[in-house]
Amino acid sequence: MQGRTVSAHTQDLPAEGAVHRDQDGPVLHLTIDRPARRNSLAPGMIAELVDALTRAATDESLRVVHIEGADADFCSGVDWVATNTDSHRPRTGDLVRRIPHTANRLIELVHTIHLPVVCTVRGWAAGMGCNLALAADFTVAATDAVFWEPFLSRGFSPDTGATWLLPRLVGPARAKRMLLLGEKVGGSAAAEWGLIHEAVAPSDLEQHSAALVSRLAAAPTVALGLAKQAIHDNQDASLAQALTHELLTLELACRTADFKEGLTAFRERRTPEFRGR
Question: Most buried of 25, 71, 124, 264 (most Cβ within 10 A)?
């Protein structure tokens, strides 16, 4: 990997928290930095994540996005206290106007961007923080991490894709345990359920996550993005529709330089060196 370069778009807002953008060669690292509030997301931080992912989607120098939290936690969700103070209460209809372009947009971007997204989870991943980790392509968590959907315990219904993501990942029964009963799920159980990619000892988390990010950064980026899109789109497709979709993505993948490199490496009996082109 090349040395990291810090983006000019990094915020430095101690009171409101910050999202740090840090590019290491083909990898964009996004760090949610508000440890005093368990990395809960203030409105400006959500906007920063949306902006970072929107830019990443068209940045040809990137091949992987990595998201983590500063210090002991991943993300404890949206900071509702900050947006509902006595001095400032949103007007009626605020959620309907705002959320589709902020929190919901963030989940959509993680889910649909053609770059693979990896989340590294320590400590708490709660509410939107949990859903952010579930929307990622790969989430590696510490065995003692905690995934929690606390919506009903706070008196409101789930949001940011929880009712769509959870049943698809773990089935309706376990989704109801998390969403309706508010059960907390530890990192080890989350991996056993298929909720996340992998759970490892806290001391091994950084190493395992870095190895996965490096592996994805060396993959055929265009074909990987097309495969990601096909997996998601074909969840609601018939077999005939899925086969047609696969043919269309295959046609595009076969036109890439990485496809040619893959065939050449196969003939020469060597490991391919994909360039993401």
Answer: 124
21: left (phi over 0), alpha (psi -120 to 50) or beta: beta
Helices 221-233/257-267 angle, 10° precision: 110
The DSSP letter of residue 3 is: P
- H helix runs in the chain, sequence order: 43-56, 80-83, 94-98, 103-112, 128-135, 162-179, 187-193, 205-217, 221-233, 239-253, 257-267
Element (H, E) at 165: helix 162-179
Q: Where do we find the tokens 């992987």?
A: 64
Full-model pTM: 0.89
Token reading at 56: 């990443």
Distance, in Å, from the CA atom of 47 to the CA atom of 147, rounded to the nearest integer, reads 23
Return left, alpha or beta for 60; rule: phi > 0 is left, psi -120 to 50 is alpha, else beta: alpha
User: Other CB atoms closer than 10 Å to residue 239's CB: what's the count?
Assistant: 8
What order do you get walking across the sheet with 198-200 strand by strand? 4-6, 18-24, 27-33, 64-69, 117-121, 138-142, 198-200
Q: Cα separations (Å) of 194 from 111, 166, 265?
A: 17, 10, 34
Model pLDDT for residues 15-48, shown as the tens digit of each residue? 679 999 999 999 999 999 999 999 999 999 999 9
**What is the H or E stretch that residue 15 is in?**
none
